[in-house]
Amino acid sequence: MANVIKVDGMSCEHCEHRVEKAVLAVAGVTSAKADAAAGTLTYEGGDAAAVAAAVEDAGYDVIG
């Protein structure tokens, strides 16, 4: 089942790749797709808190 979170601070394709790479490194995450225009990250698997921490460690803010 896909999870969607709001991410603030992404402005370009490079930002999307940076977030995706960080989230894919989280144990259990099987897919990640960031969308800078929508300000979202869609991912499958992994722990929600660990995913949020990875996004924030990559330099972006999780909203909500």
Q: Would you give an account of this structure?
A:
A hairpin with a 4-residue loop joins β2 (29-35) and β3 (40-45). By secondary structure, the chain is an alpha+beta fold. It is globular. The chain has a four-stranded antiparallel beta sheet. It has two helices and four strands; from the N terminus they run βαββαβ.
Helical proportion, percent range: 25-40%
The CA-CA distance between the termini, in Å, is 19 Å
Q: Name the shape in a single word.
A: globular
Strand content: 35-45%
Secondary structure class reads: alpha+beta
What are the secondary-structure elements, in order, as H or E? EHEEHE
Largest sheet features: 4 strands, antiparallel
Please compute the radius of gyration using only Cα atoms. Answer: 10 Å
Strand order of the largest sheet: 2-3-1-4
- Number of DSSP strand runs: 4
Number of helices: 2
Instruction: Output mean pLDDT.
Output: 97
Low-confidence stretches: none
Question: What distinguishing features does this structure have?
Answer:
64 residues; single chain; 36% strand; 4-stranded antiparallel sheet; alpha+beta
